Structures
1.
Amino acid sequence: MDIVIAGGHGKIAQQLERLLADAGHRVRGLIRNPDHAADLEAAGADPVVADLEELDVDALAQLLGSADAIVFAAGAGPGSGPQRKWTVDYAGAVKLMEVARRNAIDRYVIVSSMGADPAADDDGGFGTYLRAKGQADQKLVESGLAYTIVRPGGLTDDDPAGRVKAGSDVGRGKIPRADVAAVLAAVLETPEAAGLTFELISGETPIAEAIAQLIAR
Ligand SMILES: NC(=O)c1ccc[n+]([C@@H]2O[C@H](COP(=O)([O-])OP(=O)(O)OC[C@H]3O[C@@H](n4cnc5c(N)ncnc54)[C@H](OP(=O)(O)O)[C@@H]3O)[C@@H](O)[C@H]2O)c1
């Protein structure tokens, strides 16, 4: 597959790039800082400099051209103010949905968050983040794209366990970024995972089995 990853220098994204490249996929990672290009190349991905806040849909569509899937793994980050929750976490994701529609890229996988809620309290902090993420997820569901919405709990940099708990309400918990990346890779390689929205934390179930169980439900 030909896969574009937004937030290409992110911690999850770089692990996903390596997994996908090792599996033989063509991977492009969108970065805003050209100094990050070498890290993507080391992970097996082609860097594309594209600031999601600066570029409009026309420019992004032209830059990306055709692809088989988009993964939105970008985020303004916990140090950012409320404004950037809207310009990155919400608008960045929505711009790429429009690019996907225009460029006939049918598949769209988003790294959302446990607790994402379009009606979350717009408190200028974590509530605003959850609201922006929830509204982006809602737009994706309404987009007509073959979406998968992955909502991890608290992210850690622990080694991957390869075992997760995935479902509509898994309770609070944590998960290594490496396991989130493995779930994203598995979802991309599983067309039947289109239409799924699920929470994700560490658990007992091997990743492929956890995804198969979600599809069977
Ligand atoms: N932290 C948690 O516990 C948690 C829990 C659930 C979900 N999440 C979600 O998971 C996502 C991925 O996690 P992570 O740890 O991999 O995040 P990360 O390392 O912070 O990666 C986010 C990436 O987004 C990029 N970005 C920011 N603004 C951008 C812009 N305007 N244009 C293009 N790219 C931009 C950043 O680029 P720069 O490197 O240039 O800054 C960064 O590389 C988070 O963003 C968050 O929404 C987090």
2.
Amino acid sequence: MIRVPVREEADVSVARTLARDLALREGFPAGRAAAVATAVSELAWNIVVHAGDGEVVLAAVIERGRRAVVAVARDGHPGIADLEAAMRDGHSTRGTLGLGLSSARRLMDEFAIESEPGKGTTVTMKKWGDDPDP
Ligand SMILES: Nc1ncnc2c1ncn2[C@@H]1O[C@H](COP(=O)(O)OP(=O)(O)O)[C@@H](O)[C@H]1O
Ligand SMILES: [Mg+2]
């Protein structure tokens, strides 16, 4: 398990690189590893911009013989009041593109977000290293 404290821009690139390297070590093809890296980078960036500080945790798992990377991004404040709006393409409370959460959800195979105003936000994502057997 890899834990990356996130507070500033440099931490975002550390999280991004570690996510990609972990996926590549697990045998992910380059495109899948890039998808994980991009999704992790969006969430880490959100921590810097919207929360101020938090962490990204990365882990490789094997389930029924298949490899996956799990990434968790969490922070302790301020939380998201309207989760449904936050997940929508183009929604931003900061005047930026508003594509981070929606893109991360599309790039990963599993995506779950929990947030409570005042208590922070936790996003848990998973991506498999290969296609399932038919
Ligand atoms: N970790 C977070 N803490 C608080 N608010 C967040 C967090 N991540 C996302 N948000 C909220 O969700 C909105 C959408 O996020 P996102 O899709 O990444 O777009 P953007 O970052 O460009 O605003 C943000 O504008 C912000 O209001
Ligand atoms: Mg964002």
